[in-house]
Design a protein that fits this description.
By secondary structure, the chain is an alpha/beta fold. It has a single domain, classed as Vaccinia Virus protein VP39 (Rossmann fold, 3-Layer(aba) Sandwich), CATH 3.40.50.150. α7 links the parallel β2 and β3. The chain is globular and about 45 Å long.
Length: 220
């Protein structure tokens, strides 16, 4: 049975961006560069991604207490972050729970190579469609704004992989919309997502592929 629709990122700072500018300037060429998830995406120009992806405590520190309470995390817990980028969230979890068992995986060789030094040894390059872990390896699996970067078939596989390696607790966020206005905003914002759906379609999709974890939406 599908888990909760719950905004565990409600304390994550919201950015105010001019979506109209990106809508006008975005091209398939820019998207192709962004989808390589290399230096251009993380630390290149704003047009092709973050425009500089560096650690700032104000982003994940307010979120971590919510995750700890919701998933009842302790120093004896294990947690996997699928799409960990440079490991900033894992670092902030580690600050709260120094002995927790953490692992991170990301498709970006650049992000892992340039990860936060304190957690770099916990991270590895890999794909969400083929998680290199045994069944039931982690108490909790988290994947923030990651699996929607796959096409729909691969997205289904990634959800089943999250289900396979978790011991029953997981949380994902995906690009979604609830009406035509939000869909237009999403299309203006999106650089990398290949699968964007109405929230009701996502929920049906979760059920169809057998995902039973918690979930929420990224809606700019």
């Amino acid at each position: 049975m599908l888990g909760q629709e719950i905004d565990l990122l409600k304390n994550y700072p919201k950015s105010k961006r001019d979506l109209s500018g990106r809508l006008e300037s975005k091209s398939e060429e820019v998207r192709a560069i962004a989808r390589k998830f290399g230096k251009e995406f993380f630390d290149g120009e704003r047009e092709t991604g973050y425009g500089g992806f560096s650690y700032n405590a104000r982003f994940w520190q307010p979120v971590v207490p919510e995750l700890i309470v919701h998933f009842e995390l302790t120093n004896q817990s294990s947690l996997l972050d699928v799409g960990c980028a440079k490991g900033f969230m894992l670092y902030d979890i580690q600050q709260e729970l120094p002995d927790i068992h953490l692992q991170g995986l990301d498709v970006s060789e650049y992000a892992i190579a340039n990860a936060k030094p304190e957690v770099k040894e916990l991270l590895q390059v890999g794909n969400a469609t083929e998680l290199p872990f045994e069944n039931n390896s982690f108490d909790t699996v988290i994947s923030i704004n990651t699996i929607h970067n796959l096409d729909k078939n691969e997205c289904a596989i990634a959800l089943q992989e999250i289900e396979r390696v978790s011991r029953g607790k997981s949380f994902i966020t995906v690009d979604a919309y609830r009406n035509d206005e939000e869909r237009e905003r999403m299309e203006a914002w999106n650089l990398t997502a290949k699968t964007m759906m109405h929230v009701d379609d996502w929920k049906k999709f979760f059920n169809d592929v057998g995902y039973t974890g918690d979930f929420y939406w990224f809606i700019p």
